[in-house]
């Protein structure tokens, strides 16, 4: 069983999350083994892309203020909480792992904000550190392109994992993000916040 404690987020200390010990590894709760039938507890850690995107949203509240926001592949709910703190009209945290959705709600409660179950046709779609494998990156890119075609503004935080389709985005900001060395084999990752192009430009760049 993975134990967590309420801790301030390094790059966004105005938000606190229930997180695993910084010295813990992603698979410590499973004895160091990967289990294909059980998603790793990504929600118990604060990842660089989410930290950068949360910081950007908090510093630029006009991005989400009064808007319907969906935090996709939410994990701990950090980015969703930042959007709610920045004045979004309604915010949902979506994740394929039910444990992550539960963690996001628990973390929202700890930060005195409310997350809704779903947001239909969001005005803004946010995704932090969601391009960590090739197959996940393909699925995520399809989702983001579809949302952009529907008129949503799409912002992503990514620390250069290698699968991020930068050709479809414009860089908005860059941050040196403190990260747990047990996860990243370093204590800082330079992480960018990106905005997806309009769909016409994005489709041209795919060719």
| Poorly predicted parts | none
Q: In CATH's first tier, which class applies?
A: Alpha Beta
Rounded mean pLDDT score: 92
* Beginning-to-end CA distance, first to last residue: 47 Å
What is the topology?
Layout: E1 5-8, E2 16-19, H1 48-59, E3 68-72, H2 78-85, E4 90-94, H3 98-110, E5 124-128, H4 134-149, E6 153-158, E7 169-178, H5 181-184, E8 188-196, H6 199-206
Parallel strand pairs: 3-4, 3-5, 5-6
Antiparallel strand pairs: 1-2, 6-8, 7-8
Helix pairs in contact: 1-2
Short structural description:
With 207 residues, the protein is an alpha/beta fold. The protein has helices at residues 48-59, 78-85, 98-110, 134-149, 181-184, 199-206, and strands at 5-8, 16-19, 68-72, 90-94, 124-128, 153-158, 169-178, 188-196. The protein has a single domain (5-206), classed as Vaccinia Virus protein VP39 (Rossmann fold), CATH 3.40.50.150.
Question: What does this protein structure show overall?
Answer:
By secondary structure, the protein is an alpha/beta fold. The protein has a single domain, classed as Rossmann fold (3-Layer(aba) Sandwich), CATH 3.40.50. The chain is built from 6 helices and 8 strands; from the N terminus they run ββαβαβαβαββαβα. The strands form 2 sheets. Strands 4-3-5-6-8-7 form a 6-stranded mixed β-sheet, with helices on both faces. Helix 2 links the parallel strand 3 and strand 4. Helix 1 packs parallel to helix 2. The chain is globular.
């Amino acid at each position: 069983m993975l134990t967590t404690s309420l801790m301030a987020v390094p790059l966004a200390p105005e938000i606190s999350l229930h997180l695993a010990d910084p010295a813990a590894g992603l698979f410590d709760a499973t004895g160091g083994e990967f289990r294909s039938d059980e998603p790793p507890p990504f929600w118990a850690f604060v990842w660089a892309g989410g930290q950068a995107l949360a910081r950007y949203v908090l510093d630029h509240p006009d991005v989400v203020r009064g808007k319907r926001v969906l935090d996709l592949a939410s994990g701990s709910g950090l980015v969703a909480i930042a959007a709610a703190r920045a004045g979004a009209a309604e915010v949902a945290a979506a994740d394929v792992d039910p444990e992550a959705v539960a963690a996001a709600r628990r973390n929202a409660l700890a930060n005195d904000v409310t997350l809704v179950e779903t947001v239909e046709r969001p005005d803004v779609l946010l995704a932090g550190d969601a391009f960590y494998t090739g197959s996940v990156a393909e699925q995520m890119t399809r989702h983001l392109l579809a949302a952009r075609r529907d008129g949503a503004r799409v912002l992503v935080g990514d620390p250069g994992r290698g699968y991020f389709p930068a050709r479809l985005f414009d860089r908005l900001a860059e941050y040196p993000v403190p990260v747990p060395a047990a996860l990243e084999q370093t204590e800082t990752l330079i992480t960018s916040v990106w905005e997806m192009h309009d769909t016409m430009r994005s489709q041209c760049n795919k060719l």
